[in-house]
Amino acid sequence: xxxxxxxxxxxxxxxxxxxxxxxxxxxxxxxxxxxxxxxxxxxxxxxxxxxxxxxxxxxxxxxxxxxxxxxxxxxxxxxxxxxxxxxxxxxxxxxxxxxxxxxxxxxxxxxxxxxxxxxxxxxxxxxxxxxxxxxxxxxx
Length: 140
Prior knowledge:
Elements: E1 4-10, E2 13-18, E3 21-28, E4 33-38, E5 41-48, E6 51-54, E7 62-65, E8 68-71, H1 73-137
Antiparallel strand pairs: 1-2, 2-3, 3-4, 4-5, 5-6, 6-7, 7-8
């Protein structure tokens, strides 16, 4: 137990005293990655529905599931597994979307080439027919 006093400095940053020690804490970022700031430096973390994983200081990671909340080495391992599963699923989804996009682009290129080829063939046919008609109409 102990006394904890904190004061918000600005959005995401706070300063305070806990257990007789000065603390400075800041969490910044929008999106999946957040920058954490303390007196000793910066770290990078991500959060998901199972807790958070700190990339530079994994011992500060947390994992919660089914009412149980763990921190430290166990949380680091469990969050690593969760991140691996999430990363694999995202890679599969990204690959499927990339393949779909590539197939669509190839189909568009083939259709464009077919239309251009057809237009060129019609132009050449009309050009030849015009020359033939022109030679037939020329008086001898």
